[in-house]
């Protein structure tokens, strides 16, 4: 499958970028630097960078420009995993087949590594070496900050903690995961698109104010593209989480690289507890079909992204 080939190749590309960035940091404090590298470079599917690269390339963005938002979104994801695994959150001891960051380096260093990776994301996104226009970078920073913050990932995590030992409705579960998981996946889709279309708008503005440059969103065709990509990103993000819930029951620890059954152990509501295993699988498949239906209406009608949607709801890790 072409999408899995590019998942590997784009993953390798963003890994090299991130490795160079970490290596460029001062040697001290050494343990903090080691913890950051450990969290950032110890495997992972690189789903979010893949989406940045693939969506951006579909709309003819430069792959060199896409390196920066792809790396930035992965830094945010890595920071979230560090904090999510800590004793105050899910208290997980295994991630990607290795001890979690707090298990290896201690809670204080893990906390700082997560904080520093969050800051590094915005450092990368605003790097002077990136040729994306400054005004476009500002829009991208806002997109990433919102996806990571109160109306995104952190807000979703707060709802997740509050929901422990409570039975949620499907609507409540979907709302929680649209923030905790879906927001950053949707952000990755948007960042790829913005690298292409927002940069084009800036280039075509010929010195006009950015408020005028971004008036392109009122153009029916481009506004429709954004609506379809938003639908695609939301449906994909939810399908990803539903399938994660399936794997937490039907997967195995060795393949997943993390402890199976942690949601049950923490008495959390999941799509499997709500819909049953077969029902959750059917729901993930239905969401995947809706995501592909949105893709089919885009000018590019990306076969690769459609194949990736299928991968998301059939993967074993």
Description:
By secondary structure, the chain is mainly alpha-helical. It has one domain: Orthogonal Bundle (Farnesyl Diphosphate Synthase). It has 16 helices and two strands. The chain has helices at 2-23, 30-41, 47-58, 63-85, 101-105, 107-125, 134-148, 153-163, 170-205, 210-213, 220-250, 253-256, 262-265, 271-275, 277-296, 303-312; strands at residues 94-95, 98-99. It has a two-stranded antiparallel ribbon with strand order 1-2. Strand 1 (94-95) and strand 2 form a beta hairpin. The longest helix is centred in the middle third of the chain and has 36 residues, at 170-205. The chain is globular, with a radius of gyration of 19 Å. Residues 209-216 have low confidence and may be disordered.
Can you lay out the helices and strands and say which pair or pack?
Blueprint: H1 2-23, H2 30-41, H3 47-58, H4 63-85, E1 94-95, E2 98-99, H5 101-105, H6 107-125, H7 134-148, H8 153-163, H9 170-205, H10 210-213, H11 220-250, H12 253-256, H13 262-265, H14 271-275, H15 277-296, H16 303-312
Antiparallel strand pairs: 1-2
Helix pairs in contact: 1-2, 1-3, 1-4, 2-6, 3-4, 3-9, 4-6, 4-9, 7-9, 8-9, 9-11, 11-15, 15-16
